[in-house]
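Page 42, continued from yesterday. The earlier attempt failed because a stray header line got pasted into the input along with the sequence. Redoing it now with the clean sequence only.
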Amino acid sequence: MLSKEEVLDIFRQSNALLEGHFRLTSGRHSNRYMQCAQVLQYPDQTAKLCKEIADTFREQQVDVVIGPAMGGIVVAYEVGSQLGVKTIFTERENGAMTLRRNFSIEPGQKVLVVEDVVTTGGSVVEVINVVKEKGGQVIGVGVLVDRSNGQVDFGVPTKAVLSMEVVSYEPEECPLCQQGLPVVKPGSRS
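This time it went through. Structure tokens are written below.
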């Protein structure tokens, strides 16, 4: 198990923790942003972080690992690789999270949902719903970074490699906007 300081060092060394004025995927604004893609470009570091998730769920006899595009794809692949199981991802189609590319989940399969960063948990909940619609059994959720500091509850065992409290604001209440600081959207969705 990596210590919190070791995990933070991995994120610092890859310049994944940004400071400024950011619009998060959830639409909220924050003065800090975790750009996990900076870590995920290094396979050795990605393997170390994903091992924390894989080890947590190794005894659960996972059949499938799934993550949302874009952020969850690399995490899902590495966790699935370490568990030796099928790995797939969801994508948005007409605004709704769905399985495409002939990916499938069989009824009763044990499915681990993974993601790079969670703030409100919206994307993870959408993936959980897709799994349930297909008849899969969600046995857990694994995330690299939980920005809610454990406040989001998915109703299943959850493993966050790094849990941190990052203050975020609704845009109309954002003090950074009120100061006139330009907002940046560094993630994968515009």
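Notes: The two ends are 35 Å apart (CA to CA).
Reminder to self: strip header lines before submitting.
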